[in-house]
Amino acid sequence: MNKMGDLMKINHFNLSINKKIIILILFIFFVNNSSAATVELTSGTLPSSLREGIQTNLTVKINELQDNNLLTIETSLIPAGDKPLYDFGELNAFINENRYQQKITLNLSSLNKQFIYVTISGKAPDAGNNIKCGNSDIIITKFGNTKLKFYEIHADDKLTGIESFDLIILKKENFEKTLQQVSWSQLDDLKKETRNLFDLGLVNDAQILANSMKNIQLPNNLLLFGFIEIKDNTWLNVIF
After folding, report:
1. What pTM, to 2 d.p., does this model score?
2. Out of the domains of life, which is the source (predicted)?
3. What is the Cα–Cα distance from 29 to 234, expressed in whole angstroms?
4. Where are the domains of the chain?
C-alpha cells in the first residue's frame, strides 16, 4: 500500500514538473516569436555634431509595432518657427498630443498600425543660460549638456532606437578661435587667465579681453588694457 502511495506521489510530481516545462517552452516560444520594434532612417542625415540654431529634418520608419501599446518619442531639438517637431503625415488627424513638445507618447491601440512614419523637424537649441548677479551688471553664463538627441524612441518600456549629436556652442567656438589668433608668447599667461574667466561664466568679459589681445600689434612700447605694458619684444611689466 505504501509503495502504491509513493508511486502516485512520484507520478504527480513528474506531472507537475512536465507542466512547468511545457509552460516554460510555450513562454520562450511566444517571446522569441514576438517581433521587436525597429527604427529605420528613410530620409535626412544624422551628423555627429550640430551648431546652435542649425535646422535639421529627418524621417524615420518605426516598424513591428503590432505587439506594443505605447510609443514614446523624444528629441532635444526645439521647434523652428511655427512648424511642429513631429509630423506623422495622414495620422496627424488622429493624434491629440502636442506635436510641438519634445516628448510625445502615442496610444498605438487607437492607431492600429504595424508601422509608423514620423518626420522630426527642428533646430539645435542654445546651450547658454544667462544669470544676472543681483543689482550688478555682471552676467554669468552657464552652459548646459552638449550631448543631445536627434531622437530616442521607446516601444512600451523598451528602447527601440536612439541617435545623438554633439552640440557646438557658438560662444565657445568663437572664443577659442579668437584665442588661437593671439600670436604673442608674452601673452600666454594672460590667455590662460582669460580662459579661466570664460570657464567661470564671465563669457562676455573673456571675449572682450580675447578680442583686445588678438588686435595687439608689436611696437616698442604698448599700453594694454590700461594696466599691462610691453617694454620690448620679450618682457611684460605690470603697472601698479
Report:
1. 0.72
2. Archaea
3. 79
4. 1-33, 38-168, 171-238
